[in-house]
Amino acid sequence: MPTAMDREGGASSLGLIWFDHQGPKSPALRLQKLAADLGIMLPPLPQTAVELTSVDEAYSAVYLQLARKLSQNGARTLVTTIESLRQRAGNGDLDTMVAELTSPWPQFQNLRPVLSYYRELSRYEWPSLAPFEFRLGHRTAEIAKLRWMLTQLGDLKPRKTDSYRDAIYDPGLKLGLQHFQARHGLEQSGKLDPRTLAALNTSPGERLLQIQTNLWRALSLPVALPEAYIWINLPEFQLYALEQGQNVLQMRVIVGSESTPTPLLSTSLTHFTVNPEWRPPASIIYRELLPNNVRDPGLLARQGFALHSLSSDGVPSLALGRIAPEQLPTLLRQYRLVQAPGPANALGKLRFSIRNDEAIYLHDTPVKSLFSQTGRALSHGCIRLEDPKRLLAFLQSRAPDLDPKAISRALKLTEPRDFVLTTPIEVIVGYQTAWVSADGILQFREDIYGLDRQHSVLAEVEVVKRLSQGSAL
């Protein structure tokens, strides 16, 4: 049967980009799948020549809209006009152009394949699990519902059994619930606590939108995948160091609270300081340090704080031992509050400096107990490291010009000392609430800063639509 293109004298006479006499070109199919994965639905394949022209234009419009959206952060240089699109298509570059809309990052590549299963799963009417307490051997209809949910989500292997046994809470079901809790960043209690219940009652349709939202976010990462870099995922409260795409270091971190969030950054680590001084910002001084010192006079002195002159004329620093708390606000017009290195120093033994305009850095901490908490959005914005010496060892392994003896000596002393990296290492402070871990397990985390709500896939699609309004092809 002749196609629409055959009847109308061929695709080339119609000035088509994405279709030929055989139908959609392979780049068109890849663009269609990419758009669908990002929540954008292209029109169905055409049946007539009129439809063919219209659909081809729709494909071009979606390509250009995506390219304009992804070019906004300056990280990519993409084709954003119909003239350039036609020129590159004429040169046979369509495959490359569609590939340029994707990302080499594992946060994108490994997450896309999950979408098909969640699309299928979202067709089910997802049950709502009621709060209840149970113990091993307990039998109830809610337990049967829990078993079905965990099986559908992949946390339990399917088994042949009867409805009576399905409703019994047994060791296998407990392990499945703990697996679910682990990949959602929850306490692995095997109990149906409120956070676990909320995660279980999140429907596959909602998870599908969450996955798509995170695909959009992954597209904002730098175009090139660095040979070595540090990746910090804020909702996961984890730091990774990677070389050639492989994790070589992982540790827990503490990140900014909801009221003082850690910003998303694409930057580099340039140097580190052994035995750093801490110069707290005014917000911390006036909201926390001074009020605490009023309630407990002498607290700042015991913690190693002193007043350093703001001028450079050699005015000596002032000890706080004999200064009344009510005098400090006046003195801070001429002096800066500085905490000396030592066991009480808020930055601990090591500070790692990254380029940014918000005074954010990675650092040690004297309060190690907080790393045992499941949720660790606790800081004023800086990133506290569970084991900074392991990060130091990673940097040393990549910087043979660093003097290990000098670093070792500095660690044994108390005076501040800076060490500069000849070749800075890239640092990405990211925000993924859905991703596939290195062991192939789909992970979800709570939206600690509300960014999924602010920049959902629905919002991203609306931005793409707005970018095309008033712009003719």
Automatic annotation (TrEMBL):
Gene3D superfamilies: L,D-transpeptidase catalytic domain-like, PGBD-like superfamily/PGBD. Keywords: Cell shape, Cell wall biogenesis/degradation, Peptidoglycan synthesis, Transferase. It holds the Pfam family PG_binding_1. CDD domains: YkuD_like. PANTHER family: BLR7131 PROTEIN, L,D-TRANSPEPTIDASE HI_1667-RELATED. Pathway: Cell wall biogenesis; peptidoglycan biosynthesis. The active site is at 363 (proton donor/acceptor), 382 (nucleophile). InterPro entries: LD-transpeptidase_YkuD-like, LD_TPept_cat_dom, Peptidoglycan-bd-like, PGBD-like_sf, PGBDSf, Transpep_catalytic_dom. This is L,D-transpeptidase family protein. Residues 228-428 form the L,D-TPase catalytic domain. It comes from Shewanella cyperi. GO terms for molecular function: carboxypeptidase activity; transferase activity. Belongs to the YkuD family. One of its GO terms (biological process) is peptidoglycan biosynthetic process.
